[in-house]
């Protein structure tokens, strides 16, 4: 399944991709995979909602959000996020394997998740919080992919957190892959 955020897939975004004014970082070739995240601040004019969400998520008041804080914040809206998805998101917005994000990275993540949520909701026609096989088929057709029933079954089984018994893709799996 193609990631709905144009070009983002496992941190391999084009170096000039941006969301809400956030510029995707590009690490120089040979940069250490476990670098330090430079402290950041909110850009002037940042939406107060983004700042408030960051402050609520930053439970220890460190000015950075760690993976557990982010998972807790993302999971608080009647939706669970696997830690694997949280780590993928953090890597996507920092370009390094750190388990923390600052205000600048959070702003990009916030706007990107809003975009993904809109796309997910557009295809979750029954508002179940999951994209079932018929909805997934429609989503794929809308972006030009006609898949056989067998391929559709493989996709649903692969992205279904229950291993296929639910026959649906939840929001965090939709984001992850």
Verbal overview:
Pfam families: EF-hand_5, EF-hand_6. This is Calcium-binding protein CBP. InterPro entries: CML48/49/50, EF-hand-dom_pair, EF_Hand_1_Ca_BS, EF_hand_dom. One of its GO terms (molecular function) is calcium ion binding. The structure is a single chain. The chain is 45% helix and 8% strand. The strands form three sheets. The protein has a two-stranded antiparallel ribbon with strand order 1-2. A two-stranded antiparallel ribbon has the order 3-4. The N terminus is likely disordered. The chain has seven helices and six strands, in the order ββαβααβαβααβα. With 177 residues, the chain is mainly alpha-helical.
Features:
CML48/49/50; elongated; disordered N terminus; 8% strand; EF-hand-dom_pair; mainly alpha; two-stranded antiparallel ribbon; calcium; 7 helices; 177 residues
């Amino acid at each position: 399944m193609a990631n709905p955020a144009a070009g983002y897939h496992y941190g391999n975004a084009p170096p000039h991709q941006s969301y809400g004014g956030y510029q995707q970082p590009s690490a120089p070739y040979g940069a250490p995979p476990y670098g330090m995240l430079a402290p950041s601040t909110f850009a002037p004019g940042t939406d107060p909602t983004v700042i408030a969400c960051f402050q609520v998520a930053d439970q220890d008041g460190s000015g950075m959000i760690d993976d557990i804080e982010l998972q807790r914040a993302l999971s608080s809206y009647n939706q669970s996020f696997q830690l694997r998805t949280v780590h993928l998101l953090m890597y996507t917005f920092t370009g390094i394997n750190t388990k923390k994000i600052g205000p600048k990275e959070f702003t990009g993540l916030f706007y990107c998740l809003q975009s993904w949520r809109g796309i997910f909701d557009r295809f979750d026609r029954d508002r179940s919080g999951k994209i079932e096989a018929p909805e997934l088929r429609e989503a794929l057709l809308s972006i030009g992919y006609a898949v056989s029933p067998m391929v559709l079954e493989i996709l649903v089984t692969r992205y279904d957190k229950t291993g296929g018994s639910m026959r649906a893709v939840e929001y965090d799996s939709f984001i992850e892959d």
